[in-house]
Amino acid sequence: MAGPTTAERGERQQKSSDPPLARRRLRLSRLRTIIILTVVLVLLGAGSVWALYGSQWLRVERVSVAGTRVLTTEQVLEAAEAPVGAPLISVDTAAIETRLRRKLPRIDEVDVVRSWPHGIGLKVIERTPVLVVQNGGKFIEVDDEGVRFATVSAAPKGVPALELTVSRSSSAAASLRRFGETRLAREAVRVAGALPAAVARDTQVVKVRSYDDISLVLAGGTTVAWGSGENGAAKARALTALMKASPDARHFDVSVPTAPASAGS
User: Fold this and answer.
1) What is the CATH T-level fold of the domain 62-126, as seen in this structure?
2) What are 207's strand-pairing partners?
3) pLDDT tens-digit map of 117-131
4) What is the pTM of this model?
5) Level-2 CATH architecture, domain 131-263
6) Dist. CA 261–CA 255, nearest whole Å
7) Cβ atoms of residues 74 and 94 within 8 Å
8) If you compute the radius of gyration of the chain from its CA atoms, what whole number of angstroms results?
9) Assuming Cys at both sites, which of 36, 52, 118, 136 could form a disulfide with 61, CB separation 3.0 to 4.6 Å?
10) In which region does residue 81 sit, left (phi positive, over 0), alpha (psi from -120 to 50) or beta (all else)?
């Protein structure tokens, strides 16, 4: 039987060498693809960095203010010191929030947000006074956390005055030493927050003589002995019922809410 011809042997050798050649070509093709993708990604990354930091496209051009009631837009903008002209991505929003809280104690909450492509938004919530403390010819506003946050020339309408008048009794002096004026002021705030709505509207003065001796002066001179700031909800219910039962009374005592009392007419 005749063996394979020279042509057949060459054809077999070529076929046997085809798979390694094909694999090499495939590897080269994949390598070229990887290199091209890497170059594209690098160019895209460099372009993004340039667009965010180096170009004039994404820079701070305007700063807006929302939520103010007493503060002016100009006051907020001045305190914020937002870097107009800087790349928007590089703005330190936390630093702006810190400056606003430090320079404008009237601000209770603030949110600084980037408004792409050219803006910064300052959203503020101002503190609301629940009591005022007279200091000479000025009035210091106190919020619902007992924070004294602003001094104004005129008392805000509908906000009761806080009178911290510790008596000379030994118990009152001991109360002042134990709790301090700040804690006693917070107790007054606590009482103001627990008042029934109708009573709150009529309250003109919250007097604090000691931790356990807080009283109210209402419009027309009616007084309420409240006691401490504890059990506020029970005292509010007792006062509401007592005022309905004795509408002509001039003095109410709910310091012990389970045994309220009224007097005068």
Assistant:
1) Ubiquitin-like (UB roll) (3.10.20)
2) 163, 215
3) 889 999 999 999 999
4) 0.71
5) 3-Layer(aba) Sandwich (3.40)
6) 9
7) no
8) 38
9) 118
10) left
